[in-house]
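ARCHIVE RECORD
Type: protein–small molecule complex
Small molecule: adenosine-5'-triphosphate
Source of inputs: curated submission
Record status: active
Notes field left blank by submitter.
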Amino acid sequence: MDIKNEKISLYKILKRIIPMVFLASPIYFIFFNIVSIVNGILAVMSTIMTQKFFDSVTNAVNNGETVSNVLLIGGGLGLVLIIDEIGNGVLNFIPDDLSYRVNAYIGGKINKKVGSLDPLVFENPSTLDDINRANVGMMDSMFLVFIFSMIFTSYVPYFLMMAAYLYRLKPVLSLSIIIIFIPVALNQFIRLKVFRKLSDEAAPVRREVKYYEDCIVDREYFKETRQLGAFKYFIDLYVSSIKLLNKKRWAAEKESGIMELKMKGITLLGYMGVLYLLVDALIKGEISVGAFGAVFASIGQMFSTMEEIISRHIGRITEDLGNINHLIRFLDIPEREGSDFEIKGVPGITLRNVSFRYPGREEETLNTINLDIKPGETIAIVGENGAGKTTLVKIMTGIYIPNDGQVIFGGIDTSKISMKSLYKNISAVFQKFQRYKMNLGENIAISDLVQVNDEKLNHATKKADLIIDKEKFKDSYGTMLSREFDGIDLSGGQWQKIAIARGFYKVHDTIVLDEPTAAIDPIEETKIYNKFADMSKDKTAIIVTHRLGAAKIADRIVVMDKGEICEIGTHEELINIKGKYSEMYNAQSKWYVET
Ligand SMILES: Nc1ncnc2c1ncn2[C@@H]1O[C@H](COP(=O)(O)OP(=O)(O)OP(=O)(O)O)[C@@H](O)[C@H]1O
Ligand SMILES: [Mg+2]
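STRUCTURE (tokenized, with ligand):
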């Protein structure tokens, strides 16, 4: 399930991304390539025209050729240069404009993929990181495709044509292309090596800097950091990490700067080499003055083009490939399979010899579980922290698929049913619920924002015992619930009630509550549990709770211990067998009995 770090070959990358970028906007893509081809040809034509122009001027001066001929060729040269410039502008403009279309097209693919991934993938903390990197990879893919297009439609033909042109003037002159290539390439190669080393070394330091910064300024940490008096501690750590980062960057800049200086020296030698060949050919009368002038003028162009390909483009490609790798690997994570089924009525849930292991963990979190929940039954799950209660609930509701054994939900094996059909009629309030930075109504009706109405919202908030008073919620359901968006702040308990209301809002035949009331005060909690008992009468219900008193509302109580079911029965039955449950129950009730 993990995104592996194996490299994908450049060929495979191109094979995947060229069609994507093409499909994002076929017309733009074709237009771009046509302009690119024309641009390469025009660049060579401008050299040839320059030669003809110089030759015609020389002829006009020496042999009395007509001035109109000079003007004609000069005009042609000017035209070529203008069209070339327009082409350059278009080539720069298209990728920027296209980026919106690519964003929509590949971004859509990424989002669709996120939606169809096995939820277990998200248990891996690096997955979110990978999704972000896939998003960066999307933009990088577009530039990669354009750079490759330009290299093949414009740059390569340009240098080949220039080589042919130079060869025709004097064979040895075509060597200048190689003389130009070597120093530029060498320079870039070394630069890349230096900066790759820097980026490898700096990555962990950068993560540290980000983390210390969070500890100091992030809302989540801020209050606790201040309360602990730990500001100075984190600021010191932050400053020393930043210093280290700068030191590394400076060292890399210095190393690559010195190298660049040396390479510029070599480039200069190359320049002089080409000039020598040129002057030699002119003196020997092997090339015309016009050809000399034209080649002389185009040496600069060839140098800068070469530098553009190698430094700007190839340099960028090597940086981008890492992100594109992530994009492709992300798109290739196997999706959760399963077909659509209609689960009719209130489902029963059967677990047969179910075992489950989290990815990357050796031991089983759930071990050979057997359980039969009848349609409409209410089950409470209790047990110590880490016993596997949350995991069991996720297995029962098909969010996770067991490694061994079978879970039959409403008559269908959860590994064979699509997540969409499974979730359709399950409502769940999990231990870790979301506090969406949206308004109150949206926070409650998130499962169905299409057909929201106040009546449905009122019903849900009443069930959750959430009072919408005018003082707190000035705009009623329209009240924004985030300080970041000019909204209001709620207490932990109020948020939890919203999460419960969300559970009640969603149409369901099965309801799952995983410690839904952990942050709610005892009086409110009792009210909610009573409502919950009422609500779950005709539904299949699973409640995970640490309040054993509340477990009494269930038809049966399942006691978990180290990934196994150790006891199962009604409250009275479990008290009578004097096992784990009665031990836990007595320990809790001791608090409430006066000594
Ligand atoms: N995403 C995960 N990756 C790896 N191991 C996990 C993951 N989530 C839970 N575990 C492990 O599985 C075991 C059971 O966790 P689970 O959350 O199911 O316990 P729980 O009974 O719900 O505990 P609590 O009462 O604290 O909510 C624990 O040992 C936990 O460390
Ligand atoms: Mg739990």
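CURATOR ANNOTATION: Residues 323 and 537 are 51 Å apart (CA to CA).
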